[in-house]
């Protein structure tokens, strides 16, 4: 082989390998973990990164600020280097930034300061997003309803617009613990400004908001910049239904269909597993008073009909209870790890 042929063949081989890698990288969403899935460990950020690397994941979502040992630049730089060396992309988040929510805490100052800190940490760690949320389903029943809290959250987000835009960070608002339905979160994002605000989509929390996950995805998918995913089981009861979250692939959500549509609507966004399994929550929707916090028309909507259709396919599953005594904590940690690892393994194998 002469030099010209060698160079041609080398270039062809390199191009083929690049194309092969590109095809592999775009054939399925990146797969990661939300650190909250194994919250019982009590680990700090560096330990979550090591664990994600041991599972051969693509991303590690550190979704609460308290797991960082401090917010000094040197420390944050060391975490980024650790993740880079492990081939992990980091995502960063925090909790409630709505000062009128029942979940609000002033641990990091005002709501505006809290979100500003999250954006700074996200920038230092190379996260494309700073995740936060409004509150939980109790906020729907407060004076002014969920709309009041949505308006307050928009104010906090807009106070950080210039900071987010300057740092190239998207503020990702999660549909959290049944606080907002997909149409409401879409409205909030559009009111704040979708050029720098997006959704952190959570199909488990969607079920708590009486939405079937694939229907929910159709609304929020185009706005999605981050995710925290798990499965769900729903079954009918005398007063309504019970909902229990599950490992991915073990509930009623068709995750092959979900992942395919997710990749179409939110290309490049990872599926990050946040299993919170083992307990069931009642939804007494057959009682009229249950509907007071929800839009009047939702009870007869196609979206709720899809949720009911999912429920009809469900069956009761047992809850998890760790044995009492000195081994309780270790049993809880083992359970959380098993739920997460089955989920990431299912995604890695089936997608």
TrEMBL record:
GO terms for molecular function: isomerase activity. This is Sugar phosphate isomerase/epimerase. InterPro entries: IolE/XylAMocC-like, Xyl_isomerase-like_sf, Xyl_isomerase-like_TIM-brl. Residues 67-276 form the Xylose isomerase-like TIM barrel domain. Keywords: Isomerase. Pfam families: AP_endonuc_2. Coiled coil: none annotated. The keyword Magnesium does not apply. It comes from the Bacteria. Transmembrane segments: none annotated.
